[in-house]
Amino acid sequence: MNQYSKILDQIVMTARLQLQQVSSEEMAAKPKPEKWSKKEILGHLIDSAYNNHQRFLRADQQGNLVFQGYDQNAWVKKNAYQVRELSELIQTWAMVNYHLARLVEGIPVDLLEETTSDHNFHIIGMNRPTEGSASSLGYLIWDYIAHLEHHLSQLIPTYRLINPPFTSHAVL
């Protein structure tokens, strides 16, 4: 077992309860017509979990860490998160992240730590390393969690970060 799955579990347990305390009106409000509402940000986090689940599953089978991106705005629109029930979105977000945590829990430490410069994290990541620099699946998982918490802090005014800063390629 590794710390990534423990952190994901802790984030979901904490944030799920906090998300349920935010009013439906606040979650549906759009700051500008072209900006996402908090419901749409939560939907984006669902899409991110689905995409990263695929990436983490394929990491040991493809011989590199190059993964397909996705059109975030189009996915949010196609999934119609703005008109969906808030309780459904919160439940879906929590379940896909618990599911992702179980996958991450079973990833062998050597696979998490194995470094390669054959990745595209400089394109798909939130905290983008330099193109061609050595990185690892552990880094991508950490980056997923950092992305998750970045958006949770937008949704929940009192949210406190759980994921520690990433200072090396060591596994948590």
What does this structure look like?
57% of the residues lie in helices and 2% in strands. A two-stranded antiparallel sheet has the order 1-2. α1 runs parallel beside α8 (137-155), α3 packs across α4 and α3 (38-58) packs antiparallel against α8 (137-155). It is mainly α and 172 residues long. The mean pLDDT is 94. The protein contains eight helices and two strands.
Task: Provide a compact summary of the structure.
This protein is mainly α and 172 residues long. It has helices at 3-19, 24-28, 38-58, 72-78, 86-105, 109-113, 121-124, 137-155; strands spanning 115-116, 135-136.
Keywords:
two-stranded antiparallel sheet; globular; 2% strand; 8 helices; mainly alpha; 172 residues
